[in-house]
Amino acid sequence: MGFFATRSRGATGDPGADQLPARIARNVPPRFLAVAEALAAGSHTQGACEVTGRALARDGISLSEALDGLRETAHLVLGADPHFDELRALSEAWSEATLSYLSQLSCTDPLTGLSTLAHLRTAVADLYRDPATAVETDHALVVVEAPPASASEGAPITHAMQMMRLGESARTVFAHGQTIGAVGARRVVVLAARDANLARRATLLRRMTGQDRARVWIEGLPDSDFAAALLLDDLTRD
């Protein structure tokens, strides 16, 4: 049978046709039980493949092994190769999870060139570890928020280009080594010195990003590392 062969699923009319027999469940590859159950039921197979693809990537399983597991599962349950949409769902989910993990390891996001949230957290935490620094009075966060994307503007590349422009504007205004990172889907954050020029720089940044309809404001830092981490978590939410 061909690799993308058509097969029927759960169409026998037998009320037990969508149940996964125990003898098959015992032989399903690790992490593929949900996929096997979805194949047996004949529904939600792409969603099950996406969840499994992400889980396998987090476990360090290669894409080749993941695809082999999907093929073995399909043969166990249906006696046929997986459909193209199932292969694609698993592969895309695996790739997205892997890229996300690599991005967290890196200091910068590969698409925008901005510091990752993990790197920004580290930079903020380092300030609190310095006994000579009163973080809440010496530093602040300057937040640049892009507007919500419309349906026509929602393509990932369009969003990445907008975030890159906001980051470039922030670097122009804060050009002395401050950490500038992406926080959440729509925000760029500058870890800036709270000095006499801070308000003026925030105003300049607001003018520069006006073409992107961005909001700019200054966010004070709290008096503890734990509270600062909660603040960054809050800023990641839309």
Report on this structure.
This protein is α+β, with helices and mostly antiparallel strands and 238 residues long. The protein has two domains: 22-105, no CATH class; 117-235, Alpha-Beta Plaits (2-Layer Sandwich), CATH 3.30.70. It has ten helices and four strands. It has helices spanning 22-25, 33-41, 45-58, 63-78, 84-105, 117-129, 135-138, 156-173, 198-208, 225-235; strands at 139-145, 179-183, 187-193, 215-220. The protein has a four-stranded antiparallel beta sheet, with helices on both faces. Helix 2 (33-41) runs antiparallel to helix 3 and helix 4 runs antiparallel to helix 5 (84-105). The two termini are 48 Å apart. The model is unreliable at 1-17 (pLDDT under 50).
CATH architecture descriptor name of the largest domain: 2-Layer Sandwich
Question: End-to-end distance, in Å?
Answer: 48 Å
Instruction: Please state how the strands of the largest beta sheet are arranged side by side.
Output: 2-3-1-4
The topology string of helices and strands comes to: HHHHHHHEHEEHEH
The number of strands is 4
Region (Disordered): 1-21
